Amino acid sequence: MSGLKTESFISELKTFLSSSPTPYHAVENVAEILSSQGFKQLSENEAWSLEAGGRYFVIRNGSTIAAFITPQDKSSGAAIRMAGAHTDSPCLKVKPHAEIKRHGYFQVGVDLYGGVLLNPWYDRDLSLAGRVVYRDKQRKLHKVLIDFKRAIATIPSLAIHLDREANSKRSINPQTDLPPVLMRVGEGEEVSFRSLLSAQIEKQYPDLKVDQVLDYELSFYDTQAAEVIGLQSEFLASARLDNLLSCYICLQALITSDGSQPALIVFNDHEEVGSLSAEGAQGPFLRSVLERIYGQGEVLTSVLSKSLMISADNAHGIHPNFPGKHDEKHGPLMGEGPVIKVNVNQRYATSSETSSYFKHLCDLNQLPCQYFTVRSDMACGSTIGPLTAGEIGVRTIDVGVPQFAMHSIRELASVSDVVSLYRVLKAYFVDALQLPE
C-alpha cells in the first residue's frame, strides 16, 4: 500500500500508547479519534437510527468500544469484515482499603490483574490512573477519569546485600513485597487515600467539587513513554503493547477504509482475566451491536455465515536467549511480518479456511506472514478469538505481531511488523472477502 508515512504513523501510535494507561483512557482516546474522523457516537440506552453506509461507535462501561460502517443494503446479506482486540493489560490495581503505613512510609495495597510479569515492576517510576466515582455537594453521583501523569510511587528492590540469593532464589510475594511507596509520613499522621483522590480530581477538573470519593478502579503504570529503539531504530518499546498495539492498528485500518464494505471493530475489556463479563468477549456486547445493525432474524444469521472475524493480539516472538521455549519450526521472528496463531485445541480460533484467506490477502498485497504454534509439551495461552467465535458463530482467525516480554511493564515489538499488519488489515476492510468455498 503506497502513501503510508511510517514515521508519522509510529509517532501517533507512540502518543496513543503513552496516553492510554488504563482501558478507560484507551477507549476515551479511541472515541476521540473516531469522532474526529466523522464517526457518530450512539448510546446503548437510546434507539438507533442507522443510515446506509453510516459510521458509528458505541461504548460500554467506558472500557469496551465497537465502531462500525453499516452496509449499503442490509437485505443483500453482504459479509461484514470484523476485527477485534482487547483494551486491558496485566497490571497492579489498588485495593479498596488501600492505606498501609509502615515505618514512616505511606504505601497502598495492590492486587494483581491478569498474568503480571512481576520482576520488571521494581525500581520503576510509577504513576496512577483510572476511574473514580464520587459524590458532589448536591449528593449526586458522578464518575470521572483521573491520571496523575507524573511519577508518584515506586516499588524499591531489596538490596542484594540483604539477600545474597536474590539472583538465584528470590521469589515475590505479591501481598507483602509489592505495595508501592508513595511518600513519607510522620508519627501519628493519618493519610486518607480517598482524600488524595479528591484532591487530584479537583486539580485535574477545577470546576468539579467533590464531597466524597466513594470508590475507584485504579492502576499503577510506568511513566516511561513509548519509544522507538535499537541501533537501526527498528523496535518499538512501550507498556501495554499487549494489546493496545492491535487496537490502534485495527482502528487506523477502519478509519482509513473507503467504506465500500460493511465493517466493524470491537475492543473488549477483561481479556487478561478470562473475558467473562458484560463488556468482555465472552459477554453479550458484540452480539447486541450486530443485532441492532441487522436485527435478530435470518439476515444476521446469513451475514455471519459469510463473514470473518480477525482477532488481533500479539504473539510470542522467538527469544534469542531462550530459543528452546519455541517449536523449532514455529518461532516467529520480529521484522518478518504478522503471525498466524494456530492451536489444535482451540486456544486460538484459526482454521485452515481462515488462515488460507489471511495468507492469500498477504500475498495479494506483497506482505510477509508467519506461523506460531506452542511447543507440544507446553500449555498455550488464548485470546478473544475462540470466545468471540463461540458467542456469535463466525469464522475467526487469530493473528498478531510478534513481540518480546509479553506481560512485562515494558514490551518490545518491530516497527515493520506494525506497518505490515496495518496494511493487511486496511486491505481486508475493502476486500471482496472471498472465503474458501
TrEMBL record:
SUPFAM superfamilies: Aminopeptidase/glucanase lid domain, Zn-dependent exopeptidases. Gene3D superfamilies: Aminopeptidase i, Domain 2 (2.30.250.10), Zn peptidases (3.40.630.10). GO terms for biological process: proteolysis. Its cofactor is Zn(2+). This is M18 family aminopeptidase. Signal peptide: none annotated. InterPro entries: Peptidase_M18, Peptidase_M18_dom2. One of its GO terms (molecular function) is metallopeptidase activity. The lineage of its organism: Bacteria, Pseudomonadati, Pseudomonadota, Gammaproteobacteria, Oceanospirillales.
